[in-house]
Automatic annotation (TrEMBL):
SUPFAM superfamilies: P-loop containing nucleoside triphosphate hydrolases
Gene Ontology CC: cytoplasm
Domain named Deoxynucleoside kinase: residues: 72-258
Species for this entry: Elliptochloris bilobata
Listed name of the protein: Deoxynucleoside kinase domain-containing protein
Alphabetical list of InterPro entries matching this protein: Deoxyribonucleoside_kinase, DNK_dom, P-loop_NTPase
Lineage: Eukaryota, Viridiplantae, Chlorophyta, core chlorophytes, Trebouxiophyceae
């Protein structure tokens, strides 16, 4: 690859687009015959290039259609207050009532699973079965949850209102709940491997399940346990505080502590008065445990200044980043998540001030997400930069030497 002048991902992409006209067969033949890469690796390289181009075209499509509606997923722990937030604060707000379509979580489908239309007998309560025998039904339940979210998206994707709010997403399923049940040994390694084998390809074929951003309703595990007991959903009687604490930690890692603030500062790195200049670029070779890791680009975040964020949301928006969170799905890399503290009990029927404050934040955040899409579409790819995981940049000489070392090692693995 180095001898052929293919010293960066950008140059390889240029060959794919300009010289091979995005023809996968021609590109595979070129890599195998002219460059000398094994055929199996050629297929993997070309598939990656094609997927990256599809993602770029999707971003360009969003820019070309600035009036398309925005989809935000409202995330949070069990009993964090998602349903109340959606039904009372947003639907009851004059500011949002006429522009928002609320799509609640399909709990009713999980509680009444029916087979064929002419099937005899009562429906099955999948939610109850999971809570009673989690080790037996964890995979089956998570599989069905994904399916019902896809069916729900199909039913709500053609709405006319400019803002759609979904209660949870397939990504909270993967980043929070699937991880939690696997760690609890309710889903074994084989079942997790099966889930992962179809999750990413399915999401790639279902762009409608990928939101434009997230709203994270934060509440402590203790608060969630108290609210869960008060609402009295029969299936949740056996949910422990320990399980809620595990889910809480995974929500925090995914949407907050494992994300970045404006300017690229890791959320855990931020200090009062610190300069927000650090950006662990995704299109970089990061040194992790003595190994290099190549990440996908997200140039728009580096361009983002905290002052660009709406005043009501400033300091509350986190940006999902695969460089700091390797398990993150590529489909949501760089998406913003608005943090809203819902730990205090609020009378949503009477506290008009709190209702108006939340409505303003959602309204301004959705507008910001739309502007951010345009910024992402206009942003030019950055040149790769080498750095360590803590953000410290290498000198130009050291970076050049390490990059050559990486490419030469890669070449040895790929050629005959």
């Amino acid at each position: 690859m180095v001898r052929k002048g293919l010293t960066s991902v950008e140059l390889l992409t240029e060959v794919f687009i300009e010289r091979k006209k995005r023809n996968k067969a021609d590109m595979i033949a070129y890599l195998q015959t002219d460059v000398g890469i094994r055929r199996q690796h050629c297929h993997n390289i070309v598939r990656h290039l094609a997927e990256a181009q599809r993602d770029d075209e999707a971003a360009a499509g969003a820019l070309a259609n600035p009036n398309r509606r925005i989809t935000l997923c409202v995330e949070g722990n069990i009993s964090a207050g998602k349903s109340s937030f959606l039904q009372r604060i947003l639907k009851g707000s004059v500011e949002l009532r006429d522009i928002v379509e609320v799509v609640p979580e399909p709990v009713d489908k999980w509680q009444a699973v029916r087979g064929a239309p002419d099937a005899l007998g009562p429906p099955h309560n999948m939610l109850d079965a999971f809570y009673k025998e989690p080790q037996r039904y964890a995979y089956t339940f998570q599989n069905y949850v994904f399916l019902t979210r896809v069916m729900q998206e199909e039913g709500s994707c053609r709405g006319s209102r400019p803002l759609r709010l979904l209660e949870r997403s397939v990504f909270s399923d993967r980043m929070v709940f699937v991880r939690a049940v696997h760690e609890a040994h309710w889903m074994d390694d084989m079942e997790l491997a099966v889930y992962d084998s179809w999750f990413d390809p399915m999401v790639a074929q279902l762009p409608g399940v990928v939101p434009d951003g997230f709203v994270y309703l934060h509440a402590s595990p203790e608060t969630c346990a108290r609210r869960m007991a008060s609402r009295g959903r029969a299936e949740e009687g056996g949910v422990s505080l320990e399980y809620l604490a595990n889910l809480h930690g995974k929500h925090e890692e995914w949407l907050r502590t494992g994300a970045l603030l404006a300017g690229g500062v890791p959320a855990w790195h931020m200090r009062p008065g610190s300069q927000q200049t650090l950006f662990p670029t995704d299109d970089a070779l990061s040194l992790r445990g003595g190994q290099f890791r190549l990440h996908a680009p997200e140039p728009s975040l580096a361009m983002l200044n905290p002052d660009d964020e709406p005043h009501s949301c400033r300091g509350k928006i986190y940006y999902l980043n695969k460089a700091t969170q390797p398990e993150l799905q590529r489909h949501i890399n760089g998406l913003p998540a608005l943090f809203l503290d819902c730990d205090d009990d609020i009378d949503l029927e009477r506290d008009t001030g709190a209702k108006a404050r939340f409505a303003q934040q959602i309204s301004e955040f959705s507008g910001f997400v739309r502007r951010l899409q345009a910024r992402r579409g206009l942003a030019l790819p950055q040149r790769p930069r080498l750095q360590y995981p803590n953000g410290a940049r290498l000198s130009a000489a050291d970076a050049g030497g390490l990059q050559r070392q990486f490419l030469q090692g890669l070449q040895k693995q790929l050629v005959y």
